Amino acid sequence: MKGICFYLGSIITVMLLISSCGKEDPCLDLLCPEGFSISEINGVCDCIDNNSVDNIIDKSGFIDADETWYSDKIYRLSGKVVVTSGVTLTIEPGTIIKGTEGTGSLASALIIARGAAIHACGTAEAPIIMTSAEDNIEVGQFSGTNLDERLNGLWGGLIVLGNAPGSFEGDVSEFQIEGIPADDTYGLYGGDDPNDSSGSLCYISIRHGGASIGENNEINGLTLGGVGSATMIDNIEVVANLDDGIEFFGGTAVVTNALVWSQGDDAFDVDQGYAGTMDNFLYIAGEDSDHGLEIDGPEGSATGSFTFTNGTLKGMNAEIADFRKAAMGVVSDCKVFGFSDVGDLEIDDDESSTNYFSGLLQIKGLEFVSNKSVSELCHDKSPSGNDTAFDTQMEMDNRSVSNSTIGADISVFSWTYSFSKGAIVF
User: Fold this and answer.
1) Is residue 10 in some structural domain?
2) Is the dihedral of CA 270, 221, 201, 149 positive or negative?
3) pTM of the predicted model, to two decimals?
């Protein structure tokens, strides 16, 4: 009798195990089409549209408490979404963020206010994507099918503000970021902490932004205002922004592996005594792009010297670079090619010319792949400048070549939208 009971008990145990295993994955055999995910409720399996209302989280106004955004949702920005001081926004790898269309005060943007933090680190396999609400990209996808690099200004961009110092007009200690109306105090940046941290930004693709808030006043793809050196900024892509790709306003931000493709204005823009570094950067001009580099100097009595190194600039009808407003810093070890006959590198004002000849502004180790000589490509156009002396020095510090051995390591950008669309072909 004992043996029979043991035998029956064993059968029941096995049946229960089989039953429980089935309950762990009742949807194992369900196949869903692309753009849908599997849902199970009370044993009933179904395919759920990833872009259904339930999968879209609308965000607007101020974020006043720590918050996490998840990769199985799409976050839709309506107007300006501001992470306030003392608050941290965390964004999972693979998360998609879409900005709605609007201009002026209705322009959408994600703003990390001074004293707030963002931790948004995607991966090469699952980057964080910030794009337009018009983009038909869905949860789990890398790109949509209805927008390309020629479509810009469909939303704002990402603005990060910090407590690092800058050189501001009137020697004030803080300034209002462009793209934010002057009466919105969350747009202030600047301070006295060069080592300030605003968090971390890694493997982020920012697309189709640059909405206008006024005449000649658009939002950059990535704006860094007073951002400190303790902020991690690595592997950033900006595509099809109406204004600048990445713009630095003061601060000491350290950026590695940055790519800008097909912006409407300048790819990389420096202002207000930016004193950080950017290493390994790539610029690919679009049909309407302006400058690869636009470098302005300090606006107040404080100085600040940046370093850009290991860059590749591929032009079309754009200008190579413009140094103005007492520009100071170092641009070195870059490859420059593909610019049309009208594209050149210019010094525009007497202060920048003086800084160049005194060593405060250094342009060295550049290799120009062009039918023109270095002296034909580079000009001191300052009112009192010596173009001949500038050409001579530039010939000594740089060279024309047919095959460059320096510039960006473009292999690190294989994760980008630009690479997937065939823009990175050299």
Assistant:
1) no
2) negative
3) 0.87
Query: Is the separation of the CB atoms in 147 and 134 below 8 Å?
Result: yes
User: Can you point out the beta strands (E) in 94-211?
Assistant: 96-99, 109-112, 117-121, 128-132, 158-161, 175-176, 188-189, 199-207
Tens digits of per-residue pLDDT, 58-77? 999 999 999 999 999 999 99
Q: CA 336 to CA 213: how far, in whole Å?
A: 33
**DSSP 3-state assignment of 387?**
helix
Contact 291, 268 (CB under 8 A): no
Closest CA to 252 of 198, 194, 293, 176: 194
- In the chain, how many domains are there? 1
Q: Is residue 53 part of a domain?
A: no
Q: Provide the residue type at 189 as one letter.
A: Y
What are the structure tokens assigned to 208, written together? 């189709």
Q: What pLDDT digit, counting tens, does each position of 197-234 carry? A: 999 999 999 999 999 776 667 799 999 999 999 999 99
Burial class of residue 50, CB neighbours in 10 A (0-12, 13-18, 19+): buried
For 41, the token pair is: 């409720």
- 52 belongs to a structural domain: no
Residue bearing the bigger pLDDT, 363 or 49? 363
- Collapsing DSSP states into helix, strand and coil, what is residue 181? coil
Q: How far apart are CA 340 and CA 414, in angstroms?
A: 27
Phi/psi of residue 134, nearest 5 degrees: -80, -15
**Helix, coil or strand: residue 187:** helix
DSSP per residue, 47-72: EEETTSGGGEEEEEEEE-S-EEE-TT
Asked if 370 contacts 346 with a C-beta cutoff of 8 angstroms, the reply is: no
Q: How far apart are CA 89 and CA 296, in angstroms?
A: 32
The boundaries of the domain holding residue 235 are 58-420
**Token output for 103:** 């201009």
End-to-end Cα separation, the chain, in angstroms: 82
Domain membership flag for residue 246: yes
Per the listing, tokens 């590749």 go with 312
The torsion angles phi and psi of 272, rounded to 5 degrees, stand at: 55, 40
